[in-house]
Amino acid sequence: MKRLFLQEVVARDGFQNEKPFIDTEDKIALINDLSHCGYAKIEVTSFTSPKAIPALRDAEAVMAGIQRQPGVEYTALVPNVRGAERALGCCLDEANLVMSVSDPHNRANLRMTREQSFAQLKEVIGVIGQASIAVNVSLSTAFGCPMQGDVRLDEVLAWIERFAEQGVRGISLCDTTGMAYPTQVQALAQQVRDRFPSLQLTLHFHNTRGMALANTVAALQAGVDRFDASLGGLGGCPYAPGASGNVCMEDLVHMLDLMGHHTGIDLDRVLAASARLPGLVGHDTPSQLLKAGRRLDLHPFPQQAHALARQVSDTPLERAQ
Ligand code: COA
Ligand code: ZN
Questions:
Q1: CB of residue 45 inside a 6 A radius of ligand 1
Q2: How sure is the predictor about 319, in pLDDT bands with cuts at 50, 70 and 90?
Q3: What predicted TM-score, i.e. pTM, was given to this entire model?
Q4: Greatest CA separation for the chain
């Protein structure tokens, strides 16, 4: 079976949505651990306005502090030209540009119209491209917007086309508030793959309505091989009403391993890292696997059931009737 590429977004999508500030040193230590888990890519932080996303105001320090592992790409979110200028000094492998397919979410999240965002990002692509940093564009609300409702498939394709014309390496289709459903995912992913075969395509699901794993299977059926997910299932956009966590990385890896896919991920290491999250963020995470264990993590036969079984076998036949 062909290799799947998993991209860890907890340090960006996960931490951007946490209220208490997570210490820079703790972020660096976590990312250093994650670098040994087998991920294709790690989104380290975002070069957004510290007023908009105070949780990630230490982007430069985190980028400077991490120990990079060969074979892992390090990326960060960039929303505008100012963000690109900051990112340029940080030796990124990739800049992950962002805008929304829906107008209301773009205005709420980035305080720009979509055309203003596109103009900024076009400029960013020019600057970043000259520095030989790869460019990915994350299209938020690609499967629906919590303020607008449905987003037209042809509109998503039109934005991809405009960015493809600018020579970007990749596109992420982001289900910002978990509005995607499997047949919709399969239809869009199939069209994007057919029309833009040379683009690196990532699917970015949130589990807001419990459909993220089902959506992943639908995307696999359309031939997608690259997925974002977040350790512990943390995540969410503070400027998208009703947003909640990304698909949980360990739950996703567990499912893909069982299905026989080659992910290259060390699930034990991922689980060990995930177990540290509640200590960092101060609350439980949505991880199912941390609570339930793997499918074949067996339990001892219950003591209570032992006693009951003994009682039944001690009971004389006539009394038991
Ligand atoms: N990094 C740091 N500072 C930035 C910045 C950036 N990328 N972009 C703008 N600023 C600063 C400006 O220098 C200016 O500072 P000043 O008040 O000291 O002069 C101030 O922010 C306002 O600048 P302006 O261009 O008017 O930006 P804005 O306030 O309209 O914010 C964004 C626009 C895009 C920067 C902001 O909305 C943002 O960061 N959004 C990101 C949201 C996000 O990450 N969501 C989750 C991920 S999908
Ligand atoms: Zn997201």
A1: no
A2: low
A3: 0.95
A4: 90
